[in-house]
Design brief:
Blueprint: H1 2-15, H2 18-21, H3 26-41, H4 44-75, H5 99-115, H6 117-128, H7 133-160, H8 164-182, H9 188-201, H10 209-220, H11 225-252, H12 256-259, H13 267-279, H14 283-288, H15 290-297
Length: 301
């Protein structure tokens, strides 16, 4: 919990100035740190697998703490806002009552409910299908590598088109990947194909946040885009916290009629993840019906 809070603080100070500093290609600027996360995820799993076997988790965690501090401490010097801070900064939460933002946030939270579930069970399912320890780790590596491509694609689309375009592509692609590839996986080949497709489409979903920030700041005329990012990150965090207990409950109570015939023993997880991926595209409805929703959500005062 302490590490997650510290990491969130650092990430916010890295990302929040980007929308102001890179007005034309703000999403492309945002996706570089996000893509770097995926690139690191392609290497770190192999290193962790080796160090955990050789030295145990206590020594491994201490070594990683030293490595993180050594690499990140010098980089903190360069984390500075490019624009001078405003003298009169006032927190403006009007966007929380905007109907279009509410649909974006709803899709963001729902996507978070199921987004993290495959990464929790893919290595175990790969071992069940007969994969070796290294091959099972490759499921996460493939997902992280393709998520880099997904981040770049989603960020580019967010800069060139309305943000609902990459959201729709992510929702449709990840839904099909979950139901068709993960649900019908009977070999490690199909499981690897699912990792690649899921990382490509679902992995870049959070890269649309900068596009959402730009859209909402223009729509509501607020000056503090960092607040929009903070609320989106909080919604994603809620999904992250809830997805663990939900996945454990679904996996424990998975019925034989679903689990054995569909999803290779993870049928309930597949259905839940696919449903949340599908509902993550609800922002499209919000865009089409924004006018009517605004009249419904408008408060008397």
């Amino acid at each position: 919990m302490v590490r997650s809070k510290e990491g969130s603080c650092i990430r916010h100070h890295v990302v929040s100035p980007m929308t102001l500093s890179y007005c034309t290609l703000s999403t492309c600027a945002y996706l570089h740190p996000r893509a770097g996360t995926g690139a690191g995820g392609a290497i770190v799993p192999f290193v962790l697998e080796s160090t955990l076997k050789s030295y145990g988790f206590r020594t491994t965690l201490r070594c990683w703490a030293i490595i993180f501090f050594t690499l990140l401490a010098p980089a903190l010097y360069f984390i500075k806002p490019r624009l001078p801070p405003s003298r009169a900064r006032r927190f403006d939460f009007r966007f929380l009552l905007d109907a279009e933002f509410l649909t974006y946030q709803l899709g963001n939270v729902v996507q978070g409910f199921g987004f993290f579930i495959p990464a929790l069970y893919l290595p175990t399912q790969a071992r069940t299908l007969g994969a070796s320890a290294i091959a099972s780790v490759c499921t996460l590596v493939i997902y992280n590598i393709t998520s880099v491509i997904g981040c770049i694609g989603a960020g580019t689309l967010s800069d060139r088109y309305h943000v609902t375009v990459p959201i729709a592509i992510s929702a449709v692609g990840s839904t099909l990947a979950v139901f068709l590839l993960w649900g019908l996986s009977e070999s490690t080949t199909m499981l690897f194909a699912f990792c690649a497709m899921y990382g490509l489409f679902a992995g870049g979903f959070s890269s649309t946040w900068s596009g959402i920030m730009s859209t909402i700041t223009r729509r509501t005329s607020i000056s503090e885009s960092g607040l929009v990012f903070a609320v989106l990150a909080a919604g994603r965090g809620i999904g992250n916290m809830v997805s663990g207990p939900i996945s454990e409950l679904l996996n424990r109570n998975d019925t034989a009629s679903i689990g054995s015939k569909y999803g290779g023993g993870y049928g309930s997880l597949v259905i839940f993840t696919g449903a949340t991926a599908m509902l993550s595209g609800i922002a499209i409805v919000g865009k089409l019906r924004a006018g009517e929703l605004s009249r419904i959500c408008r408060l008397p005062w």
